[in-house]
Amino acid sequence: MPRIDSEDAFERIFSAGNLWRICRSEDAYTVLRREAAVGDDEPFAMMARSYLKDVEFPVRPETTEDREAIRYVNQEAFGGDAEAKLVDDLRDGGFVESSLVVENEGKVIAHILFSRVTITTKSGTVDAVSLAPMAVLPKHQRKGIGTRLLWAGLDACRKRGHRIVLVLGHPDFYREFGFSAKLAQRLESPFGGGEAWMALEIVPDATKGVEGRVEFSPPFSVFE
Ligand SMILES: CC(C)(COP(=O)(O)OP(=O)(O)OC[C@H]1O[C@@H](n2cnc3c(N)ncnc32)[C@H](O)[C@@H]1OP(=O)(O)O)[C@@H](O)C(=O)NCCC(=O)NCCS
User: Fold this and answer.
1) Exposed/middle/buried for 69, CB within 10 Å: 0-12, 13-18, 19+?
2) Which residue minimizes the CA distance to atom 48 of ligand 1?
3) Ligand 1 near 135 CB (within 6 A)
């Protein structure tokens, strides 16, 4: 995207009043960060920085001290214990690839976890990661926090060399990130899922020619 050269252009791209939409577009977010990084006297740098303050949520890997808060976030978001227990069991079993939290005023308000799965094909196995669970405290939902957390999570997966991410979740939410039910059609899920069973290629064409059954780690068996 070119540099922004007028207030109109700025407003057009970032549609003020609808800030979380910036989070939904990786391009808009990248432009915003670039503009914010320009010198102090640049006309849009200050505007960009003030926008960023509203859409940037500190995302960081979980620490031992976060465990109780992560349990709470999952219980509140899902209205039950199953996902909170899944997180504990995945951690205890050593299956976690990446577990990130969003902090707000010193409290964990959102959490995302990726764990290892294997796709068993006729010609061998293919590694992938499963995104589950993901949770934002109810009173913080629909402000773009889940979106930023998911971009950060996918970035972490990319940096760790993962190629395929699988999820069973709300199609409207995950589609925006490139998750697709079509890409997951040849990957058999033990949970079924229809349109909610989706794959994302971190590396282009990573699912090409891959057909088989996805084997989840033992803590997921309670959901089968
Ligand atoms: C799903 C969840 C993680 C999204 O986080 P969030 O911070 O609320 O999402 P964002 O604000 O970044 O994104 C908002 C947009 O995503 C979509 N979206 C968010 N939650 C959705 C849901 N439950 N179903 C369908 N679309 C959803 C909507 O398009 C929404 O836009 P809108 O508010 O204009 O309708 C969060 O709502 C949550 O924790 N839900 C309960 C637990 C859960 O279902 N986890 C996911 C399991 S797959």
Assistant:
1) middle
2) 169
3) yes
Q: What's the maximum distance between 2 C-alpha atoms anywhere in the chain?
A: 61
Tell me whether residue 153 is in a domain.
yes
All residues at 6 or more sequence positions from 82 whose CB lies less than 8 Å from its CB, including other chains: 222, 223
CA 44 – ligand 1 centroid, Å = 30
- Which pair of structure tokens corresponds to residue 219? 């803590």
What's the CA-to-centroid distance between 28 and ligand 1, angstroms?
Answer: 20
Q: What is the pLDDT of residues 95-107, one digit of tens each?
A: 999 999 999 888 9
CA atoms of 187 and 212, how far apart (whole Å): 5
Tally of CB atoms within 10 A around 109? 23
Decide which of 34, 51, 68 is a domain's last residue. Answer: 51
How far is the centre of ligand 1, averaged over its atoms, from the C-alpha of 146 (Å)?
Answer: 7
Same domain? For 44 and 66 the reply is no
Asked if 98 and 61 count as a contact pair (C-beta separation under 8 A), the reply is yes
153, amino acid identity: G
CA 90/CA 54 separation, integer angstroms? 33
pLDDT in tens, 204-218: 999 999 999 999 999
Q: What is the dihedral of CA 77, 29, 114, 82, to 10 degrees?
A: 10
Is 124 among the domain residues? yes
Atom 19 of ligand 1, residue of closest alpha carbon: 173
Residue tagged 């940096």 (tokens): 159
